[in-house]
Specification:
By secondary structure, the protein is of the alpha+beta class. It folds into two domains: about 40 residues, GTP Cyclohydrolase I, Chain A, domain 1 (Orthogonal Bundle); about 130 residues, GTP Cyclohydrolase I, domain 2, CATH 3.30.1130.10. About 40% of the residues lie in helices and about 25% in strands. A five-stranded mixed β-sheet has the order 5-2-3-6-7, with helices on both faces. Strands 1-4 form a two-stranded antiparallel sheet. Strand 2 and strand 3 form a beta hairpin. Helix 1 packs across helix 2. The protein binds zinc ion. Zinc ion (ZN) binds next to loops.
């Protein structure tokens, strides 16, 4: 996490240079406001760099509940750090509490804080899982992310519709095959195996 505010004028300058470099005229009417517009958009897309995901899990509440908690279909969008093109999809999160649970909206905030930065789907999946495991002191955590990458659909191999699935299983979700099977079932709605 960085405390530094985003430097919007540096981004606008860079976008102007980029437009020139591809052979465009950054001064023409349609492009005149583009550099500033992109800078403001980046503030939103990269807001996670100034957000501490752990802060959303500071206030967990104690609960006797010791069954699996599952939140499916948390929508997210992120920026692929290899191409700075968006990838988006759904995150499914499950955890087995050890006396501490958190509000469901907090899980969504954690996903968003990690997603809104230059990312890789694999790392996003692991970061979410490890933070939950750590901060909730859970017995197990499972995270599955299904996403489409525009860097795959509009360039290179051009495979529109291809969905990339990543998963990270920790604790009992990794070591106990029955718990893992139950988690996978709940996380995917019986879909992906
Ligand atoms: Zn990419």
């Amino acid at each position: 996490m960085t405390e530094q505010p985003q430097d919007n004028s540096a981004i606008a300058d860079a976008v102007r240079s980029m437009l020139e470099a591809i052979g465009e005229d950054p001064g023409r009417e349609g492009l005149a406001d583009t550099p500033d517009r992109v800078a403001r958009m980046y503030e939103e897309l990269f807001a996670g760099l100034r957000d501490d995901p752990a802060s959303y899990l500071e206030v967990g509440f104690s609960e006797e509940y010791d069954e699996m908690v599952v939140l499916r279909d948390i929508p997210f969008h992120s920026m692929c750090e290899h191409h700075l093109l968006p990838f988006m999809g759904k995150t499914h999160v499950a955890y087995l509490p050890r006396g501490k649970v958190c509000g469901l909206s907090k899980l969504a905030r954690v996903v968003e804080a990690y997603a809104r930065r230059p990312q890789l789907q694999e790392r996003l999946t692991q970061e979410i899982a490890h933070l939950l495991m750590d901060r909730l002191d859970a017995k197990g955590v499972g995270v599955i992310i299904e996403a489409t990458h525009t860097c795959m659909t509009i360039r290179g191999v051009k495979k529109p519709g291809a969905v990339m699935v990543t998963s990270c299983m920790l604790g009992l979700f990794r070591s106990n095959s029955a718990t893992r099977a139950e988690a996978m079932d709940l996380l995917t709605g019986g879909g992906v195996k």
